[in-house]
Design brief:
The structure is a single chain. The chain is an alpha/beta fold. It has 2 domains: about 150 residues, Rossmann fold; about 170 residues, Glycogen Phosphorylase B (Rossmann fold). It contains 13 helices and 12 strands. Strand 3, helix 2 and strand 4 form a beta-alpha-beta unit. The radius of gyration is 20 Å and the shape is elongated.
């Protein structure tokens, strides 16, 4: 049995995309005969033994993963997870990527961006789409979070489930929807996610002080998210950049919610061009169309759910990772990228 150590830029179980990805892969790979141990890169010196190491985030986890792998005589894999494709990588990250036994990206757009930053050709990057992992059902009898319980029955909640950082553009959503909120008193914009950048968090708090129709309840544990997603009329991603289709949008689709997202390369892969907005006015237009037509909202949600199930299979993801990790652990060339 192959043992894989996934080094994260956060702790396992935190409400972060990297932690969700590692937990999903651990569950899927266990059925493939591969054991996965997620581990915070901040505690790399205490990391358990493994046959192959995986750096989840080229910049934040890559350099420490390289050092540990070299010290232990083990191969390593780089998984580009999102913000590691923004800006220019430092020398340590470039070395970690260049010397890795394999490099994995979550989509075609991410593969193109990785090649721009780190060089190489298509065969040097393996595209493994993330699986769409359903949110767990809430515990029987568990009350809804207080911010949901306080919503009036006629409220129209729009959910932005993402960590608060500048690249996720939370204030763009607030600014774009403010004219609409003035005309629709039932509109509520809810930001669900941890504060990942103090400056952006402070700016969002100041903006929310002038927007009583919006709120930032903070992060919810994954096991409590489904209640919030189901209460929302739709889910919004105003992000300026993503390493692949966000887990939160795939989860929303599986939960039967329509999605609107910014027009960026990762979002063109999911939810797809028909669900993307190009500017603030287009966002308001698309949102009003869905708010005013429950039937179309349900049809859009059904199409997204089918796409998520068909094209983002956790079983296919786990099988591709198992093949890759077995090859790397055995010292064989990894499967060709595509």
């Amino acid at each position: 049995m192959v043992r894989a150590l996934f080094l994260l830029p956060c702790r396992a179980g935190e409400p972060r995309g990297n932690a969700t990805t590692a937990a999903r892969l651990a569950a899927g790979l266990a059925r493939q005969g591969v054991t996965v141990q997620p581990w915070p890169v901040a505690e790399v010196e205490q990391a358990p033994a493994a046959d192959v190491l995986v750096a989840c985030h080229a910049r934040r986890s890559g350099p420490a993963t390289r050092e540990l792998a070299r010290a232990r005589g083990r191969p390593w894999v780089i998984l580009f997870t999102g913000t590691d494709l923004n800006g220019r990588p430092g020398a340590a990250a470039r070395r970690a990527v260049a010397e890795a036994a394999a490099r994995v990206v979550l989509g075609r757009a991410a593969a193109r961006r990785a090649r721009q930053l780190h060089g190489g050709g298509p065969a040097d990057y393996r595209v493994i789409r993330q699986g769409a992992w359903p949110l767990p059902e809430p515990a029987a009898g568990e009350p809804p979070p207080p911010f949901l319980a306080s919503l009036p029955d006629q409220a129209e909640p729009v959910l932005v489930p993402a960590g608060v950082r500048s690249v996720k553009a939370p204030r763009r959503a607030l600014r774009a929807l403010a004219p609409l909120a003035a005309r629709r008193p039932n509109l509520r914009l809810l930001f669900l996610g941890p504060e990942l950048e103090r400056r952006e968090g402070d700016a969002l708090r100041r903006a929310l002080a002038e927007a009583p129709w919006a709120a930032w309840p903070g992060a919810l544990p994954r096991e409590r998210l489904l209640t919030a997603v189901r209460r929302a009329v739709l889910v919004l991603s105003p992000s300026r950049s993503e390493g692949g289709p966000p887990n939160a949008l795939l989860e929303a689709a599986l939960a039967g919610r329509a999605v609107i997202a910014s027009d960026i390369p990762a979002h063109r892969e999911f939810p797809g061009r028909e669900h993307l907005f190009t500017d603030d006015a287009d966002l308001r237009r698309r949102l009003v169309a869905l708010l005013d037509d429950a039937g179309e909202r349900a049809r859009a949600a059904a199409r997204l759910r089918e796409t998520a199930r068909r094209e983002f299979s956790p079983r296919a993801e786990a099988a591709a990772w198992a093949t890759l990790l077995r090859a790397v652990a055995a010292g064989r060339p990894p499967p060709a990228g595509h």
